[in-house]
Design brief:
By secondary structure, the protein is mainly beta. The protein has one domain. The protein has one helix spanning about 95-100, and strands spanning about 15-25, 30-35, 45-50, 55-60, 75, 120-130. The strands form 2 sheets. It has a 3-stranded antiparallel sheet with strand order 2-1-6, with no helix packed on it. Strands 4-3-5 form a 3-stranded antiparallel sheet, with no helix packed on it. It starts with 15 loop residues before the first strand and ends with a strand. About 30% of the residues are buried. Bound molecules: zinc ion (2 copies). One zinc ion binds near residues 23, 113, 115 and 116.
């Protein structure tokens, strides 16, 4: 599948990005995305949502059929268009060409907030790890 990483111009890290998810309602959480020093073909931490519990999760994007640790329901990763307010319209055609199949792309458009349940949550890249 090739090299997997949280690949976004907001996230210029090779192996892992420190990401903040933040919403106007007060929801805020920091997490480490990507692979760090682990095998990029096996590990890529990415933001996700349990649609049943409405909780924010950080799960391994490379895992087959990841489920919610609370309720066992299938989770959705935030690269799903269902969790995004609109097209990732700040992504340029060149960036789209870089995005290989299986690659997690951190959305730059507003996303579904697990707290207020509006499409007003944003991801901000704050640093690198790994
Ligand atoms: Zn759940
Ligand atoms: Zn919110």
């Amino acid at each position: 599948m090739g090299r997997i990483r949280v690949n976004n111009p907001l996230n210029r890290c090779i192996v892992g990005g420190i990401i903040k998810a933040v919403c106007a309602c007060g929801f805020e959480t920091d997490f480490m995305g990507g692979s760090g020093r682990q095998n990029v073909d096996e590990v890529c931490y990415a933001p996700a949502l349990c649609p049943a519990c409405k909780i924010f999760l950080v799960e391994n994007y490379m895992k087959e059929n990841p489920v919610c640790p609370k309720c066992d329901a299938a989770i959705m990763f935030y690269d799903s268009s269902a969790l995004q307010a609109g097209r990732n319209d700040r992504q340029t055609p060149a960036e789209e060409n870089i995005a290989a199949p299986g690659l997690f792309i951190l959305p730059r458009t507003s996303c579904f907030c697990p707290k207020c349940e509006k499409m007003t949550m944003k991801f901000i890249h704050t640093g690198c790890w790994g």
